[in-house]
């Protein structure tokens, strides 16, 4: 479960015998998210893909071992708590380091501390770097040799792609693990824990949260446990006790705490999905008026505009497709426009896009074709490509026949060849069947003509049989081999 972390340089977990974040009675003045940090793995909520029975982190935790990790995921999903639990279980010295506030001097102090740990007790030193993507290159280079020789075990937390923000040498010495936003069910468990735990949570307040308020709190948190607990704590402070001693948390109170307009949920909590479904189906039915209404309903209800744009970008591929290939470009431009302007000015870009998509000709041919191709890829496994289509960057690969017999399309009439491009198990397979609508009509006619010519060429001169055995491959100087690319 996610929580707040100290941000100062060299913030560390105290040594045994001192007060700790994992103490039974934390400071009541600390934020709720801080007080509810899990004390052991049994209290950790979320990331079952990594922590389920037999999974990597579960096995690492149970073994008491510790290795360098980079935890990549959005805010509030438990990166800091997970790092603390792994370190605590391994009985390592947990040193917390802020990439924002610390400098090279602080790096040296961490190294000296790790050297003292190794010399005096043989204790492992785990360095937790929050926002590791903010590390500058000098900081990363300073830690690198000490991570490489095992003096320091690095655990970094980042919301940014490590491939772009962290030097390759450091990434290669750590295992990158992707943490996911918490599910609605997991967020519900956190709410239950917070309002029932009297020692660390809000159990002494006798809170009763109604179903609508609970759904809104979960929906507005966006998978972020810290945001959820902060909002819950604020809502509890705004609530008034009844004569019975109970403190009801209703939708208006939670909405005030979140500072976001409340949706009108029905009793089953389905309204969010009903509205996005209504928008999607109105677009598919080419009804711009209905599409604009359902779009407005969601924006007024507090839906994230970027979520709506993402759904419409998907629609541009799935339901418009090749009938109007520019719809996808237009949708991506609408997202960029909104990011440039923000709300409320950028909301018009959503309306513009919804109208364009509703008026566009419709085709799901690409969607259907790709699903068929995916099914074959999954069902038939990793079939090898024909030798003629394989890349041959080395002399050995050329001697093995890679690229031999390749027909370079530009050397043939109409840039069309008779070579087989599928593995033999899929020879002649057709996935894409164009619709007769929009631009796809003309594209489909051209494709049908091309397929007819290909069948005629195949009938007149069948291509050589595909042979995956390199020993029987044609020699590298076979006709056409020089055209392999």
Protein model, in words:
This protein has 485 residues and is an alpha/beta fold. It folds into four domains: 32-178, 3-Layer(aba) Sandwich (Rossmann fold), CATH 3.40.50.300; 184-258, Helicase, Ruva Protein, domain 3 (Orthogonal Bundle); 271-359, Zinc Finger, Delta Prime, domain 3 (Up-down Bundle), CATH 1.20.272.10; 384-483, no CATH class. It is 47% helix and 7% strand. Helix 5 (104-120) links the parallel strand 2 and strand 3. It is flat. Mean pLDDT is 84; it is low at 2-25, 265-269 and 463-485.
Residue runs with pLDDT of under 50 for 5 or more positions: 2-25, 265-269, 463-485
What is the CATH architecture term of the largest domain?
3-Layer(aba) Sandwich
- How are the strands of the biggest sheet laid out side by side? 2-3-4-1-5
User: What best-fitting shape do the alpha-carbon axes yield?
Assistant: flat
Proportion of β residues? 5-15%
Q: How would a textbook summarize the main sheet?
A: 5 strands, parallel
Distance from first to last alpha carbon: 51 Å
CATH fold label of the largest domain: Rossmann fold
The secondary-structure element order is HHHEHEHEHEHHEHEHHEHHHHHHHHH
Top-tier CATH class of the largest domain: Alpha Beta
CATH-assigned homologous superfamily of the largest domain: P-loop containing nucleotide triphosphate hydrolases
Number of domain modules: 4
Overall mean confidence score, pLDDT: 84
**How helical, in percent, are the residues?**
40-55%
- Number of strand segments: 7
């Amino acid at each position: 479960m996610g929580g707040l972390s100290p941000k100062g340089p060299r913030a560390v977990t105290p040594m045994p015998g001192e007060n700790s974040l994992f103490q039974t009675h934390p400071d009541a003045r600390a934020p709720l998210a801080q007080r509810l940090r899990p004390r052991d793995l049994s209290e950790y909520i979320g990331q079952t893909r990594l922590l389920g029975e037999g999974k990597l982190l579960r096995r690492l935790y149970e073994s008491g071992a510790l290795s360098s990790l980079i935890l990549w995921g959005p805010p509030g999903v438990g990166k800091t708590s997970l790092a603390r639990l792994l370190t605590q279980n391994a009985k390592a010295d947990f040193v917390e380091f802020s990439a924002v506030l610390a400098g090279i001097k602080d790096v040296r102090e961490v190294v000296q501390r790790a050297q003292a740990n190794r010399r005096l007790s043989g204790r492992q030193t785990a360095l937790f770097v929050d926002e590791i993507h903010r590390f500058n290159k000098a900081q990363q280079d300073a830690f690198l040799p000490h991570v490489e020789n095992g003096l320091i075990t690095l655990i970094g937390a980042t919301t940014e792609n490590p491939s772009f923000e962290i030097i390759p040498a450091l990434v290669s010495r750590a295992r990158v693990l992707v943490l996911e936003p918490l599910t609605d069910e997991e967020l519900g468990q956190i709410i239950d824990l917070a309002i029932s735990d009297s020692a660390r949570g809000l159990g002494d307040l006798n809170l009763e949260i109604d179903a609508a308020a609970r759904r809104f709190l979960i929906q507005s948190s966006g998978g972020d446990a810290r945001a959820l607990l902060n909002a819950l704590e604020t809502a509890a402070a705004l609530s008034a006790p009844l004569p019975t001693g109970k403190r009801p948390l209703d939708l208006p109170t939670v909405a005030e705490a979140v500072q976001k307009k409340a949706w009108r949920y029905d009793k089953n909590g389905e309204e969010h999905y009903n509205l996005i479904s209504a928008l999607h189906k109105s677009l598919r039915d080419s009804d711009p008026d209905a599409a604009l209404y359902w779009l407005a309903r969601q924006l007024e209800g507090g839906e994230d505009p970027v979520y709506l744009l993402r759904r419409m970008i998907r629609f541009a591929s799935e339901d418009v497709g090749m009938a109007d290939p520019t719809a996808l470009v237009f949708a991506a431009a609408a997202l960029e426009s909104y990011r440039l302007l923000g709300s409320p000015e950028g909301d018009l870009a959503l309306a513009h896009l919804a109208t364009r998509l509703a008026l566009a000709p419709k085709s799901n041919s690409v969607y259907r074709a790709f699903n068929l191709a995916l099914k074959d890829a999954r069902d038939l496994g990793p079939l090898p490509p024909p030798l003629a289509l394989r890349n041959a960057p080395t002399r050995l690969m050329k001697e093995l026949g890679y690229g031999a017999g390749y027909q370079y399309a530009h050397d043939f009439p109409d840039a069309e060849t008779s070579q087989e491009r599928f593995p033999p198990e899929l020879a002649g397979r057709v996935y894409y069947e164009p619709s007769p609508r929009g631009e796809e009509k003309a594209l489909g006619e051209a494709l049908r003509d091309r397929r007819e010519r290909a069948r005629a060429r195949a009938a007149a001169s069948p291509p050589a049989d595909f042979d995956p055995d390199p020993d029987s491959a044609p020699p590298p100087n076979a006709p056409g081999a020089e055209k392999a690319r």
